[in-house]
Amino acid sequence: MLNRLKENFFFAVIRGKSAEDAIEITKHAILGGIRNIEITYTTPNASDVIKKLSDDFKENQEVIIGAGTVMSLELAKEAIQAGASFLVSPHFDKEIADLANQEQVYYFPGCATATEVVTAMKSSCPIIKLFPGGILGPGFIKDIHGPIPEVDLMPSGGVSIDNVADWKKAGAVAVGVGSALSSKVEVEGYDSVTEIAKAFVKAVQ
Asked: How many other β-carbons are positioned within 10 Å of the β-carbon of residue 192?
């Protein structure tokens, strides 16, 4: 599954205004070619959304459903019970890392310094989320890969159609794409999510 997550490259970071909104954004992102789905716990009834999507895409080996903005051990347990295959948080949490290892799900914590990156690596986090990506920039990956070439890094926050190729060129194994995906929903409807997803995919091909 870790190889598939990397092959898919894009993580859709879904912050729905409602459970229904999150499900619609997800389905249209998948139609556009983004298959790693991160349902954030800022979405109302996020666990219900994770469970429904996990059930709906159970037969589809390419689509992988996980949880984002996992801020506590309790939320991590809830997400795993709902069927999340991976957990993402904006910070590193040793308790969440230990639970993920115990339950055999992936934990991708947010880090912004070399010390944080190494700490997360010691807890067997297979991909480290760089957050906030917009502040760190693609050059941060090159700097980290100097002394620590083996670490897999995924920026989230500040990734756009215009700079996603720069992130990949710098050595990102994946990228998180958030508000950009749903930025036109209110005016153009959910089909806009599909078109934006396609534009992201095309930008790195």
From this structure: 18
Tell me whether residue 38 is one of the annotated catalytic residues: yes
Q: Does the annotation count 6 as an active-site position?
A: no
Model confidence pLDDT, tens digit, residues 146-182: 999 999 999 999 999 999 999 999 999 999 999 999 9
Question: Which one of 24, 38, 51, 52 is the catalytic residue?
Answer: 38
**CA distances, 150 to each of 80, 83, 101 (Å):** 28, 29, 20
C-alpha angle 122-125-127 in degrees, rounded to nearest 5:
130
In the block, tokens 């939320």 appear at 75
pLDDT at 187: 97
Q: Which of 129, 142, 169, 202 is catalytic?
A: 129
Q: What is the pTM of this model?
A: 0.97
